[in-house]
Amino acid sequence: MVTQTILPLRLRDARVRKNGRVIVGPVDYELPADGFTIVIGPNGAGKTTLLRMMHGMERLASGAVEWQVAEKRARERQAFVFQIPVMMRRNVLENVAYPMQLHGSSRKQARAEAARWLELIGLAEAAERPAPVLSGGERQKLALARALIRKPEILFLDEPCASLDGRAMREIEAVLQSAHSEGTRIVMSTHDMGQARRLASDVLFVHRGRIHEDGPAARFFEHPQTPEARAFLQGDIVE
Ligand SMILES: Nc1ncnc2c1ncn2[C@@H]1O[C@H](COP(=O)(O)OP(=O)(O)OP(=O)(O)O)[C@@H](O)[C@H]1O
């Protein structure tokens, strides 16, 4: 059987409106099939909403978000990691195993795969602990293992390292880089310019609800094309 990729993703004239105001859009953009895309921009620029819109979590006021396959299949092949991870009041292993069980794996199979992921992500010792008692970094690792366990084609992450210490951040970045090198497409927002430079193959610079500039990371960081991106990279306040 030929497995058709869900990518590239196309956004056509896509807009999200809240309280009568367009907060993101119009966006016309094609997300290429490969890469580690970092989404950056000033506070309130629309990064979170753009990611949610790509993932199909926002009702569109106009336009379309189109994958290469039917919506149901596209949905199954994506995962999303939130800034504040959502987790069940069960132990860590069960939290990670859950998506596999939900999609038809036996409990035994799901638990075995979850244990493998916990090992990989450095959470093996916490397997039997209730998820709600984890530290911030551990929670985010759990969320990442749970997102990756079904080997999504594309993973969206909204500020996954906000407020984590250096060690947790390093561990999470290593897992993301490894997932990417094994073929997972990644789209992630961050406020941390060091992290953006470490991880990005390409950049989406969001300003006032629009993709203001996009391109390969090396070019963006060395030669930003727009005055707003230049100002942002210099650390100026961009409104
Ligand atoms: N549910 C909502 N109702 C009204 N306005 C909203 C809603 N959600 C977001 N907004 C507004 O839309 C704009 C974009 O928000 P969004 O959270 O996408 O930006 P962001 O770039 O992720 O911000 P930050 O960097 O602060 O996390 C902001 O001005 C925000 O106040």
Kindly describe this structure:
By secondary structure, the protein is an alpha/beta fold. The chain has a domain at 9-77 and 152-234: P-loop containing nucleotide triphosphate hydrolases (Rossmann fold, 3-Layer(aba) Sandwich). The protein is 38% helix and 24% strand. The protein is built from nine helices and nine strands. The protein has helices at 47-54, 71-76, 92-102, 107-121, 136-148, 166-181, 193-199, 217-222, 227-234, and strands spanning 9-18, 21-31, 36-40, 62-66, 78-81, 154-158, 185-189, 202-207, 210-216. It has a six-stranded mixed β-sheet with strand order 5-6-7-3-8-9, with helices on both faces. Strands 2-1-4 form a three-stranded antiparallel β-sheet. A hairpin with a 2-residue loop joins β8 and β9. α3 runs parallel beside α5, α4 packs across α5 (136-148) and α5 (136-148) packs parallel to α6 (166-181). The longest helix is centred in the C-terminal third of the chain and has 16 residues, at 166-181. It starts with 8 loop residues before the first strand and ends in a 5-residue tail after the last helix. The model has no long low-confidence stretch (mean pLDDT 95). The chain binds adenosine-5'-triphosphate. Adenosine-5'-triphosphate (ATP) binds at residues 18-19, 23, 41, 43-49. It is found in: Cell membrane. Belongs to the ABC transporter superfamily. One of its GO terms (cellular component) is plasma membrane. It holds the Pfam family ABC_tran. It is a peripheral membrane protein.
Short descriptors:
cell membrane; alpha/beta; 239 residues; single chain; 3-stranded antiparallel β-sheet; globular; MetN_ABC_transporter-like; Rossmann fold; 24% strand; binds adenosine-5'-triphosphate; 6-stranded mixed β-sheet
